[in-house]
């Protein structure tokens, strides 16, 4: 936490450095802080209760950046920074955190005298986040970036930002949410930010907002409004914001069965998203609609978004929609699509067959479909994707897949990475009998504990194995239920270069026949299994193998007899 004591070893190193300086008859110029390259003075974690006033003998004019992160400075004076004539970056985060964010939940109020920052006319970047301030202080017109997140500021009005014509980045996140409660919403007066004619990036996440603030500057290119309570969106809400390139309105109408933090269920019959909400945003490149309780996709939402490259639709209820939607036909420039955790509550489907409109995603490079919950992966599951010439990354982990026809990936000549980890794969899929929808075939009811798997500590091979990042094709089958490996599993996968099979239950004798089709394989991870490695021909079928991980396969060697 930000208020924890420094590690004793850190203090010892500082003491040794100080002793060495004293032995030479000199003192560090910016004691007790440290001068680092490029004019940075580092005063982090020193338990300072006031801003250090450095000696006039120190090269103060060379200081361009001062970091006072995680100290105990509760009062800033007019003269604190006036002697730093070249200061451009000032970091004051975590000095006096609001009660809800303090490790001990003690209330803290930071006092800032009127000329504290006005005395620094060169200041370009100011970080005041995680401090108990209740109003925007007087600021110099030189500011380019301002961070006021996780403070107690609950009102923004035009007087706060008068004269800040150079400001481009403004962050006011988390001033009213469950960790920093205020029992109301951040109040942004209509036109409060309109005078910021060069503002391009505005972030107002986690503030209990119930509507998009009115009269935002038309210069905005990035607008982040996620995790508020904006459940209705119409064209007037984003009027005149025609320069927008990134818009994040996710988490405003949540599905709480997957939430990892306090969550308010989306009201019935919401969200209400007007068909023309985004139609005038012709420059939009990234749109986030995640965690919005969407059951369907309206083609009109994407009308006019010919430049859209990234679309996040994760954590919705689109399990049925993705088998039928026609919304993707108009998104030929989309590069990344996230559909993860669009599962039906407590249900896994026997099969999943993607809608034909996926064929329209001709520029798609990355598709995330983990956490949709279907049990069989066959050649019909991903058939529309075989027409996509640029698809490189496919994520299918955590789907409860128990049968997988791996040879289908041979139809994707440009795939770089397929992630099937954390499933229940035990063998190859049987050929599909029909081309039904997502809900065809039997449904399995799942216990609630399976519905929101937490983050997994993915074991990395990078420290002791060749990295697979630069290889042409990687397949991850780690943490599944494989007991045996048969060569037919890898039919049509001769170009595979990296294969991860760690944390399965593979217990067969490895005799030189298991990986015959994988003539290009260079990295093989078989760690955390139960392999019988007594056969003299093990892995001889892999002529290009460079790295092999067999760690944690000791069971056959530990048996008595």
Automatic annotation (TrEMBL):
Superkingdom of the organism of origin: Eukaryota
Protein name, per record: Toll-like receptor 9
Subcellular location field: Cytoplasmic vesicle, Phagosome; Endosome; Membrane
Main subcellular localisation: cytoplasm
GO biological process: canonical NF-kappaB signal transduction; defense response to virus; positive regulation of interleukin-6 production; toll-like receptor signaling pathway
Alphabetized UniProt keyword annotations: Cytoplasmic vesicle, Disulfide bond, Endosome, Glycoprotein, Leucine-rich repeat, Membrane, Receptor, Repeat, Signal, Transmembrane, Transmembrane helix
Pfam families with a match to the protein in the record: LRR_1, LRR_12, LRR_8
Signal peptide: 1-23
The organism of origin for this protein: Mesoplodon densirostris (Blainville's beaked whale)
Entry keyword Transport: no
Molecular function terms from GO: pattern recognition receptor activity
InterPro entries given in the database record: Leu-rich_rpt (IPR001611), Leu-rich_rpt_typical-subtyp (IPR003591), LRR_12 (IPR041283), LRR_dom_sf (IPR032675)
GO cellular component, as recorded: endosome; phagocytic vesicle; plasma membrane
């Amino acid at each position: 936490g930000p208020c924890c004591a420094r590690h004793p070893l850190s203090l010892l190193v500082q003491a040794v450095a100080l002793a060495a300086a004293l032995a030479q008859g000199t003192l560090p110029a910016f004691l007790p802080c440290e001068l680092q390259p490029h004019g940075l003075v580092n005063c982090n974690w020193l338990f300072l209760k006031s801003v250090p006033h450095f000696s006039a003998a120190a090269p103060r004019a060379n200081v361009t950046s001062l970091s006072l992160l995680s100290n105990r400075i509760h009062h800033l004076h007019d003269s604190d920074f006036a002697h730093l004539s070249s200061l451009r970056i000032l970091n004051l985060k975590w000095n006096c955190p609001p009660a809800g964010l303090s490790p001990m939940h003690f209330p803290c109020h930071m006092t800032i005298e009127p000329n504290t920052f006005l005395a620094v006319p060169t200041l370009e970047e100011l970080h005041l986040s995680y401090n108990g301030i209740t109003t925007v202080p007087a600021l110099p017109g030189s500011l380019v970036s301002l961070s006021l997140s996780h403070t107690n500021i609950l009102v923004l009005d035009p007087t706060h930002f008068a004269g800040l014509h150079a400001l481009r980045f403004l962050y006011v996140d988390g001033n009213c949410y469950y960790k920093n409660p205020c029992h109301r919403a951040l109040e942004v007066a209509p036109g409060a930010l309109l005078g910021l004619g060069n503002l391009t990036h505005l972030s107002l996440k986690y503030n209990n907002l119930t509507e998009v603030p009115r009269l935002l500057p038309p210069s905005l290119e990035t607008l982040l409004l996620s995790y508020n309570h904006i459940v209705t969106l119409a064209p007037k809400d984003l009027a005149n914001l025609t320069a927008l390139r990134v818009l994040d309105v996710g988490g405003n109408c949540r599905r709480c069965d997957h939430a990892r933090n306090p969550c308010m269920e989306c009201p019935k019959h919401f969200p209400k998203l007007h068909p023309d909400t985004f139609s005038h945003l012709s420059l939009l490149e990234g749109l986030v609609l995640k965690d919005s309780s969407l059951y369907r996709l309206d083609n009109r939402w994407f009308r006019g978004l010919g430049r859209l490259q990234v679309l996040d639709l994760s954590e919705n209820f689109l399990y049925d929609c993705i088998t039928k939607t026609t919304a993707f036909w108009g998104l030929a420039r989309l590069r990344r699509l996230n559909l993860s955790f669009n599962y039906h509550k407590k249900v896994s489907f026997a099969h999943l067959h993607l809608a034909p409109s996926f064929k329209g995603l001709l520029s798609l490079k990355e598709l995330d479909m983990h956490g949709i919950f279907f049990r069989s992966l066959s050649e019909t599951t991903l058939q529309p994707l075989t027409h996509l010439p640029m698809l490189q990354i496919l994520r299918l982990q955590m789907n409860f897949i128990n049968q997988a026809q791996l040879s289908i990936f041979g139809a994707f000549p440009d795939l770089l990475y397929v992630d099937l980890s954390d499933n229940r794969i035990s063998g190859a899929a049987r050929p599909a009998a029909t081309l039904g929808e997502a809900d065809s075939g039997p449904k399995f009811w799942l216990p609630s504990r399976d519905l929101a798997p937490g983050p997994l500590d993915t074991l990395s091979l990078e420290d002791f194995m060749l990295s697979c990042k630069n290889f042409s094709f990687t397949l991850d089958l780690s943490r599944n239920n494989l007991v045996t490996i048969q060569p037919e599993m890898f039919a049509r996968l001769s170009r595979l270069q990296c294969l991860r099979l760690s944390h399965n239950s593979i217990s067969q004798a490895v005799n030189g026949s298991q990986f015959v089709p994988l003539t290009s394989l260079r990295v093989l991870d078989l760690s955390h299994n139960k392999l019988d490695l007594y056969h003299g021909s093990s892995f001889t079928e892999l002529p290009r193998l460079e790295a092999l991980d067999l760690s944690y396969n000791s069971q056959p060697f530990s048996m008595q007899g």
